[in-house]
Known about the structure:
Chain B: This is 2Fe-2S iron-sulfur cluster protein. The complex is a heterodimer of chains A (about 500) and B (about 100). With about 500 residues, chain A is an alpha/beta fold. Chain A is about 35% helix and about 25% strand. Helices cover about 5% and strands about 30% of the residues of chain B. In chain B, the strands form two sheets. A five-stranded mixed β-sheet of chain B has the order 3-2-8-6-7, covered by helices on one side. The structure holds flavin-adenine dinucleotide and FE2/S2 (inorganic) cluster (FES). FE2/S2 (inorganic) cluster binds near residues 55, 58, 60, 61 and 76 of chain B.
Amino acid sequence: MTLTIIRNADDLSARYDIAIVGAGPAGMAAATECARLGLAVVVFDENAEAGGQIYRAIERNTRAGRPYLGSDYGRGAGLWAAFCATAASHVPSAAVWSLEQQGEGAAALAELRVSVAGRSRIVLARRVVLATGATERPMPVRGWTLPGVMSVGAAQIALKASALLPEGPVVLTGSGPLLYLYADQVLAAGGTIDAILETTPRRNWLRAAPHVFSFLASPYAWKGLGLMLRVRRAVRVFRAVTALEITGKDRADGVTFMAGGKTVSLPARSVFLHQGVIPHANLANAAGCALAWNDRQKCFAPVVDGEGRSTRPAIFIAGDGNGIAGAVVAEFDGRIAGIAAGLEVLGAGSSEASRRFVRLRKRALRGRAFIDLAYQPALSFRAPAAGDVVACRCEEVSVGAIREAAALGVAGPNQLKTMLRCGMGPCQGRMCAATVTELLADAQQRHPADVGTYRLRPPIKPVPLCEIAALPHTSEAVYAVTGGHSGH
Amino acid sequence: MFRKIENPKDLVTIVVDGRELEVDATASVAAALLGAGMATVRRSVVTDQPRGPYCLMGICFECLVTIDGVQNRQACMVPVRDGMTISSQRGARTTQGGGR
Ligand SMILES: Cc1cc2nc3c(=O)[nH]c(=O)nc-3n(C[C@H](O)[C@H](O)[C@H](O)COP(=O)(O)OP(=O)(O)OC[C@H]3O[C@@H](n4cnc5c(N)ncnc54)[C@H](O)[C@@H]3O)c2cc1C
Ligand code: FES
């Protein structure tokens, strides 16, 4: 058996047993398990290659060719090989832009709309597994829209996928393990990092301390510690940084910040920001799956049961897309959700394999609470005070405008959209939703769970109108738009 | 704003705002532009500020360029192809007749 690669909308079947969105660790593992059950499986990913975020470019990268990517990256090769040995279909460069559930209960069906090579198709599946992963939490600071400023994840993608090292002076700033992981990879590849500005508040360590033993028992601890020591020997590190701002007129040329009671300015041509990752739940949100606020991770995440079932019976959610837990947990999560979804299609009971994956997932989750609390970004970087900082990059809405609307008593993110247009640009709130929730909560002294987040509607990625128009439409839809009954 | 640390196996030629560039055949359009020293790929729609790729993973839509005549393509999600024509964007988009 080998994986079938589909590059054309015409080559898709109209119906599959299982559709999976995302070919990262969770999606590849889910597909492998479903294919083992003998089901017809299709995997869509908008990337040109399988691997997701952590194992990006796994189809091309070898340990020998790019050793600086490290041993955690190496785990992806086996996962990808197993996926390639299944009878599933992989559709690369395929953006799923709409998901709806039809019918209820066991008979429910998922209806996906997907754009492949400039054409859209409707695909039906008995069950869908969303393995859409995470995005980096926005880090709105003055100057973050300047060219020369990118996210740390972006810089890492440039290294993994294209062997690109940043031009100096290079400054990394924010909080979270990815700062040190990327710095270590750059140093191993022969590059330079000039400074790391940690914005993690000092008191985080106190709050994380009760979880330290479970952290020390996890594989993260020693690997992470070694990595941090290596990086600290080679790079100037500033701790508990506040009042960060990126300077420059048409591109970034420096950073200014407070550390140790002093104002510091450094030159910089490449500035990379990162303050953790949050679930990329746009598709789940638009499909009507319930979301809940996770106060430890400071983000909304879809509500799922222990096997990845969302509040919509045809929709399962696995991996970082249902809460941040990292690549190894994502893989087990994908296996568990894949088996559960597959067994529902087959009308079969429980599985011994699944119980084993539940145990492995539990073990892999050790240390997560410590990491969440130790690296929780400061409120001043999640909901900035400075009015002139851009919050919504697409529609260029400032923090000040949002705080003003909050003072006027705006009811929530959805009303804010109609007042200020924030969240209505092409990124559809991906870059501002987290900030908007926390700004309203901070300004109105409400709980973020209460404030809520944008209610999204398909298409969740912009699609050319001609692609939507070319899809089959119901006669009611045609009548609603044209007033006539002439079909499409 | 980046430099390549490997010699690419295959090269393709793309045309960026009228200028020919030889780039790594495995790159995305955004990676090719960044590798060629271009940090700015468009001006923002509301206040005309310079912008460039921010996330490289299809999230931020800061890398929007016109590729082979189609506006608002995400440069970070589109692999380069030999002969591809890319232009940076300024101002609001216009409607295009006749499909794409
Ligand atoms: C930029 C970035 C870099 C990271 N680097 C590391 C690292 O080096 N080490 C580490 O341990 N962790 C890293 N992480 C954390 C990472 O989220 C997890 O380790 C792991 O990748 C999660 O696996 P996943 O399968 O849940 O999702 P992912 O691996 O993120 O895969 C999700 C996939 O879904 C696809 N997708 C999403 N929406 C759609 C849609 N609508 N249509 C089609 N396809 C879609 C995406 O293209 C993506 O390929 C990183 C996260 C980010 C955001
Ligand atoms: S760089 Fe963010 S969408 Fe392309």
